[in-house]
Amino acid sequence: xxxxxxxxxxxxxxxxxxxxxxxxxxxxxxxxxxxxxxxxxxxxxxxxxxxxxxxxxxxxxxxxxxxxxxxxxxxxxxxxxxxxxxxxxxxxxxxxxxxxxxxxxxxxxxxxxxxxxxxxxxxxxxxxxxxxxxxxxxxxxxxxxxxxxxxxxxxxxxxxxxxxxxxxxxxxxxxxxxxxxxxxxxxxxxxxxxxxxxxxxxxxxxxx
Length: 208
What we know:
Elements: H1 2-15, H2 20-26, E1 34-39, H3 46-50, E2 57-62, H4 76-87, E3 92-98, H5 102-108, H6 117-122, H7 127-136, H8 142-161, H9 165-173, E4 177-183, E5 190-194, E6 199-202
Parallel strand pairs: 1-2, 1-3, 3-4
Antiparallel strand pairs: 4-5, 5-6
């Protein structure tokens, strides 16, 4: 805890003053560029990954970067999505999974969460991911299976997003774009889903 307090003191003494104009502007409202949906995993820092300033990302975090289908769980995640789209008018939504995801491991090994009833219940939202992986990737094992599960889960959550009325309206107007990313903790790379190629490709790859 001492480290966190010292960090705050450094922020107040060195950073806040240097960005006083920015924070003054933010005190009057927010106009984020994107809604960034990612996992609660402590190794993921959306603003560090995207090198964005305060006010540029509206961030939704939960275990497994899961988006409940509209009407399934009318809780905080659904409310956050609705507010970002209908009120803040973000133009992009990014669903960002990551390597070594504990929820995706648990999806492959459900016995590991038998004593975690809340986690087990939450993972029902990823049941489609589990079935797709089981039925289509029976030949994969180990890390290859886990990475594929993480990628498929991102794709499924993009599908879930489309069931949200606020999202559907903006997609029909072509004023909203959805993005699926997977972040590699080990390499720092991000793989983005390319719908035309039906594959994840590195964001760092040169555009042809």
